[in-house]
Amino acid sequence: MPEAKKLIKAAVPESLIPNPSPANLQSTRLAVHANGVSSTCWVFLASGSCVHKLHISLEDLLVGRGKESLLIPEPAKVLESSSLDHGPHRSEIQSIALAGTEGTSILGSVDAYGQLIVSKLNESFEDVEGFTYSVSPVDAGIGEGSWAGLSFKPSQLSVAAVARSLCRSIDIYNQDIHLRTLHTLWNPNSITFLDQPIHCQSSLLAIAEGSQLSIWDIGMKGNGGCVQRVSASIGNMLYSVTLSSSGYIAVGGADRSVTVYDPRRWSVVARWVNCSKYEITGLAYSSVNPNYLYVQGVDYEVLCGDWTESKKAFSFRGDSNWLGFSKCSSRDLLAGWCDSGNVFVADVS
Known about the structure:
By secondary structure, the chain is mainly beta. It has strands at residues 4-11, 30-33, 40-47, 50-57, 64-65, 71-72, 74-75, 78-83, 93-99, 105-111, 116-121, 127-135, 148-153, 156-164, 169-174, 177-183, 188-193, 204-209, 212-217, 226-231, 238-243, 249-253, 258-262, 267-272, 280-285, 292-297, 301-306, 311-317, 322-327, 333-338, 342-348. The protein contains no helices and 31 strands.
């Protein structure tokens, strides 16, 4: 069972981000990274058309507990803060994504019109000169701006998928080369590559669009690339999709419940009903135990629980609505950024 070891609260310097931009319902403007069992972490935030980074200390801090397994944060120091020379976006950044291994990380950002900028970062998480590229959508980003999402293919980091909600499209890129465009039936709200050994085709992409979970093969031309559709309850908008290390796909949305699917039979494995007080806009499986999920609500609460038994283990709250939320890919380190300008980081093991 995952157990929270630390929960810290650090203030973003007002000189760095005086007034955060609002963005959209999905909290996809934050990325977090920590090396191994490091006592510090790096948090990347996007506000307006810029990306900023914070180096936060996690040393000598313990977690306090309140009623109903609610964690109480301790204040922490921001060791370093700066803005990245990531390249100019034409509009507000909607999503950022961090991928790679130690020493070879890449950071991608996408704005409301679908422009993608990717930078290579060194061990100090600074931009490597000459390794940044930018690519605009094939329609030059015409029309109205909207939420846009980003996902890198874990086994091939040069491949990225960019979702544009109002355009109902997913653009697939190999670095700055446009490979193809997938056209969804509904507005996409979340995307992730299904790049796990259980899936015989590593080119699969999961999309939460409207009230459906759709699966696409980016290498297949027939049927527009769509290989499977699974419908949720009518009117239940899905806002988040995530994949576990064991291959299970979880979705959550407006009905405040989590549904877990087995992609081998496309059947429902479990359903955690009303686990959140408000709409679910973020999901992440635990790296410690894939039977546990982190569920982020649209308000200011995050909970961890066993989806196989629909049982909550613990939760923590921000001090205002989430502007960004993410989990480190290599360990159970979660970070959330609030409208108040504070960042909350939970270390779980």
